[in-house]
Amino acid sequence: MATAATIPEVFTRKASGLVRxxxxxSAFVYNILTMGLIFPWTYLWAxxxxxxxxxVWGILLATLLxxxxxxxxxxxxxxxxxxxxxxxFQSRAFGxxxxxxxxxxxxxxxxxxxxAMSGWLLAYLGFAxxxxxxxxxxxxxxxxxxxxxxxxxxxxxxxxxxNAFLGMMLLVxxxxxxxxxxxxxxxxxxxAFGTMLVVLFTTPHAEFVTRLNAFAVASGSAPNFYxxxxxxxxxxxxxxxxxxxLLATLLxxxxxxxxxxxxxxxAEQNGEIKDARSFKNQAFILVGSLIVTGILLAxxxxxxxxxxxxxxxxxxxxxxxSGVAEAKISGFWLWPNxxxxxxxxxxxxxxxxxxxxxMNSHQIVNNCYIGVxxxxxxMSLDRLLPAWVSKVDERLHTPVNAHLIYFLFxxxxxxVYNLWGAWYSLTLGVTFACGYVFAASALAGAVFPFxxxxxxxxSPGAKYKLGKVPLVTIxxxxxxxxxxxxVASYLIYPQLGVASTLGFTxxxxxxxxxxxxxxxxxxxxKRRGINVDYAFKEIPPE
Length: 542
Fold this sequence. Notes:
It contains 23 helices and 2 strands. It is mostly helical. It is globular, with a radius of gyration of 23 Å. The N terminus is likely disordered.
C-alpha cells in the first residue's frame, strides 16, 4: 500500500494553466532581445583585461561555439516542449538532484543578478546617455546634470527597483500583453542599433576626436579629453598598441558569451510557444536568433574600432578595467552607445539611440522574470517547491505568486550590486553560473537518446543520425565540450572576474544551498508518502 500511494499522482496538478500565446517569430525576437544587443561588457572589459585580443574574431568565435549548443536545444525542445525548459531537460536526463541543483543555483538564484544589471543598464546605458546627449545637442546643463544623476548609486537603485516593479506588473497582467509590447521593444532597439552603426561607420577618426572632446566638455569634463585620456593611460603603464595575442582573442569569447549564451533562453517558456514541437520552428528560434545576433555584435565591434581607432579601445578599456579616471567622462565609462551619441549633433539621433537602449534594458528584466518563473512553476509541479509557487491565475494565465516572489527577492540584490563595490566585480559571475546550466543541457541532449529513449524516439528529431549515432549526441557532446571550456575559463583566468576568494565563495555557496534545498524538499515529500523521483520519469503536464 505504501508503494501504491507514491505512484498515482506524481505532479501537483494535471495541467500547468499556461497557454501558448507566443508565435515562433515572437520567440525568435525574444531570444535576440534576451541576448542583448546593448550588452556592453565585451567592448570595454575585453580591451581592458585582454590586451592584444581581437574583438570581432572573439565575438564570431563565441557565436561558432554556441551553434552546437543551440542545436542540442532544438532536439530537446521538440522532444519536451514544456514549461521549464532547462530544468525539464536536465531532470529527465540526469535526475532531479542534478536538474534542481544546477537550475536553482545557476538560474533561479544567479539571475537575480541580471535583474539588478537590467536596472543598471537602464540607468547607465539608457537614461544617462539620453540626457547627457540632449544636454549637449540642446546646450542644456540641466539635462546634462540629470544624466549624471542616473550614474549615481541611488539614481541606479531607484531606477532598478522601479524597472523591476514595472516588469512584474506587465507580466502579471498576462503573457500575451508582454508579447505585444515586445514588438515595440524589438523595433526600437533595431532602429537604435542601426543608427549607431551608421553614425560610427561614417565618422572619420579625426572628427571622432573633436566630437568626443566637445561631448566631454558639455558633460562637465575638462577640455582635450581624448588627449588627456591617452596620456593618462600610457602613464599608468598600459600599452595602447599591444601586439596580437591569440590567447587574449580566445578569452574574448567567454566575455562575448555573456550575450550569446542566451540564444536558447526561449526554451524556458516552450509550453507557451505555438507549435513548439516543430523542428523547423525551433531551429529558426534558437539557431537563427544566435547567428543574427552574433553578426550584429561583431559589426558593432568593427564600427567602434573604425571610428575610434584601436588605440582608443585600450584607452576606454583602461578606464573601465584599470580605473584610469581620466579615461572616463564625468565618471562615466565610454560605452558604445555613449560614443555614438557623442558623435551626433542631432537630438533626434540621440533620442532614437536612447529610446532603443531604454527599451532593451527594460526587456531584460522581463526575460529574467519570464524564464525563472517558468522554471519555478516546473519545480513546483514536480513538488520541489511549494504548490502555491506554481499557482496560475485562471483568467490571466500567468504565475502571479512566482512573479511577486522574484520581485521581492530582487530588491536586496539590487542594493548589494550598487552599494557594495566588491560585488560589482562579480558582474560576469552570472555568465559563469548560467553557462554551466547551458553546457549541462547540451550534455543532456547528448545522452537524451539513451537516458530517455522512449521520449526521444517519439520526437521529430529522432530521424536525424550520422550513421547509427543520433546527431544530437554528436552536437550535444560538442556543445557541452565548448560550453564547459568557457565555464572553466572563468575559474582559471582572473581577468574574467570570478577567480577570486569572493567569487569562489559565492559560487560554491549558492550551489551548496541549492543541493541542500533539493534533499530537504525531497525528504519532506517522502514523509507525506510521495516519491518525487517518479516525476522525473514522466513528461510534465502541459
